[in-house]
Amino acid sequence: MVKNLLTGFLVVVLILPAFAQRKQASPQIVKKPLTHAAYDEWKSITYKELTNDGKYAAYTLNPEAADGKLVLMDLSINTKDEVPRAENIKQGWDSRYSFMLIKAQKDLVKELRREKKKKEDMPKDTLGIYSWTNKKLEKIPHVKSYKIPEKAGNWIAYQLEAVTEAEKEKTNGNGQENSEKAKPARKISDENGFPLILSNLDNGKQMTFGFVKDYTFAENGEGLLFHTTGDNGELQPGIYWYDLNEGKLQSVFEANRKHKFKYLSIDDSGSKVAFIADLDTTKALVREPKLYYWDKSISNAIVLADQSTTGIPEEWLVSENFNPYFSKDGSKLFFGTNPVPFVKDTALLAEEIVNVEVWHWQDDYIYPEQNVRADRERKRSYLAVMHLDNRKLVQLGNEKMEDINVGEEGNSKYALGKDDRKYRISRTWDTGGAHDLYIVNVADGSSKLIESGVQGYSRLSPSAQYAYWFSNPDTAWFAHHITSGKTLKLTSGMGIPFADEENDVPDYPSSYGLAGWTKDDARILVYDKYDIWSFDPQGKEDPINLTKDGREKKITYRYVNLDREKQFIDQDEVMLLTAFDEKSKSSGYVRYSLKDRKLDPLVMSAHRYGGIQKSKEADLYLYTKENFQEFPDLYVSDLNFSKPKKISEANPQQKEYIWGTAELVYWNSLDNIPLEGILYKPENFDPNKKYPMVVVYYERFSNTIHQHHKPEPIRSLVHRTMYVSNDYLIFVPDVVYSTGYPGESAFNCIIPGVNHLISQGFVDKDRVGIQGHSWSGYQTAYILTRTNMFRAAEAGAIVANMTSAYGGIRWESGRARMFQYEKAQSRLGVSLWENPLPYIENSPLFFANKIETPILLLHNDADGAVPWYQGIEMYLAMRRLNKPTWMLNYNGEPHWPVKRENRIDFQTRMMQFFDHYLKDAPMPRWMERGVPAIEKGIYQGLELVGEEDGI
What we know:
By secondary structure, the protein is of the alpha+beta class.
């Protein structure tokens, strides 16, 4: 008896600790599949920045349809402050302040819109000034806009909105309690202007300028330039300069309230000013703007140029649509001119006006493109320059040479001109882009042709010693030495391609681009597929492969410019390069010393890195790191990436959901071409189970294996994460193409890839779907005419009939569609009249009778890329053939649904469609009976058949 009691006691003693441990352990999270309701939970980091001293970081966490927040982090002590609803965020130059506009709550704004509140009664923005020193936020209500000097940290200027009578009872519009009501002499408005508060952040002193319409700071904080319509007191209408160093207000130009001013410009030294003025107070249809100039040596601004100034072409005007700018050294002022515009006869009645389009066969641009370009052409300006030392005006651009690029930030005596007139007609059927190159003398406007018919990128070198370009037909880089007039082909006879090695369209391959030029234009650094090469533009020294082993190791190196203002690469610079391993798809960063020609690996992992920036004054990087499982959160690191620190956790709720994995898949096409693709699996994948699978694709995607796909209602494709979370497999195969056989090429690449996965044993061969949009939507429709392998298919914005699509218009751009088929993505390589057979053979419409797969089509009636009548042709064919087909048209939407509600609706319907055919889920009502026009916008039909009956 005693023995049994002791035994029982020992058992209890031994069991209790284990029980206690289990009780203390955190309960295991039971994960749930993603649903469309989860979209609202996910946040994006839409803004990120380090302060210049590297002590602080700021970033936003913004959901798509709710209020977000700004996170302000002290990196030294890992503390965070948050400001809700912050937008238009800027960091002060001296790292003491962070500035922002705080918006009203989205729900409140929506509710007020429902109540039909007027614009002036809607909530106003609040200016937020966050002090990094004392971690406090100052709020100033009713702020319309704010500006700070780009490179000075002790000033801010902001405009106050007009406030309602109710708001005036509480404040005087400046955040201070009213002691005495004061009614302004004139209404604060867009026409009259708004109060401008200039605040010194060092001592808190403020100045108020009334009825300001426009304002800008000098870059380095020398002064504030503004236009006011006058405050009924000492401040008369005109342009003013407030000297921030001397605390002195100076009139630049006296005006009256009806005068109009645009484009307040200040030179880099903060001592010269320019603006455009229209002083005609009549209602003349032809305006005659004037270019005004002021500096501290003159009391009042002077007219620098108008229609009567020597140098401006006859019957031309100073442009009111061009923002004047000074050269870097302040010696020149560049501005725009234009011919006197055509104006309507306002005396005619509407019925007396003839509106007719005359389509001429030799128009530069076809009429639909002219319509798209019309507003741009009405505002077109041609570059002119005023040499400030001798007041000589030189017209640089003209109707023959519209495009002028100045050199050396405007300091150079040379510019690069481009003339594409004689190549415009061919854009109807060609990809376009050809132009003649000219060197333009900025001193007198003379020009010299240096190359004809350039197809490819062209620019001036940073110091403007060379014009350089990549010639697509030659697949080579060229450099033209301006002084000697000699042109050198840089990449000649090397046996290394510097153009796209994987180009599979019937057109010239494009370049891999360039890293830039070294100081004084000594070397130009260009890319091949993998490496960075250094070329002597004079051709005296041999090219140098800087990165050396990229091609051998199949690693692609690219330069990261961490300073947006830098015009060249220093000869002694230690460059930061991205590195991408083509085989493993890993990526990271390496460091390269131009001086020592040494390459040092820094970090490399199975991730995708991006958005990297460096603090201006500290050795600190801010960047993102992501893969399929990891959201692109923010990291900070030293320049060696030795101790990276994660500073954001944007979406901690992800751990509550079933996610997935991504892996590379390899197979050969029916043409025996080695291919790659991505297979996404549920995270609880069971290799002994049979899974439904959806094929999603668009040319090549395998290099994106480490891209994160957060839950969001994407526009047009199956959402990979959403589907694998719901027990699907998603297969994303690469597709390569042969000219003349785009549809067959897709078939040859995709079908063996699907068969390869079926042979692994975990794909249910009877439950495979396929989905594509636009180009892949077309391919999906074509593939269905060749195989019954797929149980269901969704195809969006397809081209069903290449013969009719060839003669169509891309209405968004106004361009003819011909180039698409002859030279671009459709890859037929011939015109319809040279060989009509490929147009017919590659058109699924002509073989629709062979399709047995149920299809869900999407084609919106405002599609500006693929005319929606292409979707209609396919829908009507399937209807005539009595084959199961549905077509979604989101009224007024373009190439894909843009409005968030429509994107969610489309993703919901598409998943219901695949769930029904691939998982035997009940059919939704919209599939069973449709949604009649009288029910549109009222009844959506998303409930499942039997759902309402509790079945």
